[in-house]
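sorry for the late reply, my laptop died twice this morning and i had to redo everyting from scratch. anyway the thing you sent over, i finally got around to it. pasting the sequence first so we're on the same page, its 233 residues, then the predicted structure underneath. double check i copied it right bc i was rushing
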Amino acid sequence: MEKDRRARVIAIAALLVGVVGLSLGFAAFTNTLTIKSSAEVVVDSSVFNVVFSKQSGSVVDGSVTPTLSPANGPASFTGANATITNSGTGAPKIEGLKATFTAPGQSVTYSFYTKNAGALKAYLTSVNFAEVTTGATKTCTAKSVQSPATPATASLVAAACNGISLTVTLGSESFTQTTARNAFTTATAHDLEADGYETVTVVIAYAAGSAQADGDFDVAFGDVTLNYSSVAS
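ok and here's the structure:
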């Protein structure tokens, strides 16, 4: 009996050894291979490209001649030619807009276009009138050198300054101060489809009936920027 029990124990032990040996025989090694990748997309600047132009059908840089009102004013009432520049590293711009007034009731008008020369629709998000000095988008200063030599009276310059304005009209909507998209006549009024355009008119005016100064003075306006995006905000 004892001999049979010992035989069973030995048999069980042998079985356990066999199972362990079997487990060890089927153990596996693992190795992980990892592939790390990246990509960069550099968008051609022509994909989104809103510019100024002298013409609506194509992009034309160059000089823009203003219209004077009244057309038969004195010779000293003039408007300088402006220049459209779309090339270079800066944003497209039109510069050199300048009126020389001699009396109230005169205005100088520049007409040109915004042109979507890109492939994506352009959304006008805001029209911004920059400040010349804190809190003011326009300043008027008496000339220090003039004939007669006495500078214009500051109070009279300030009164005359009130009658001088800068108005930017896009399509049929006019702007005289910073305006966000949600305050446009309609939010989508000035959006440009690919190859689309919109008329831009800039008027510098000395309103009829305005005060006059007793000497020459300069008027400075802050830059006006039209901000477009590829996404409506």
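The radius of gyration is 38 Å.
thats about all i looked at so far, will dig more tmrw
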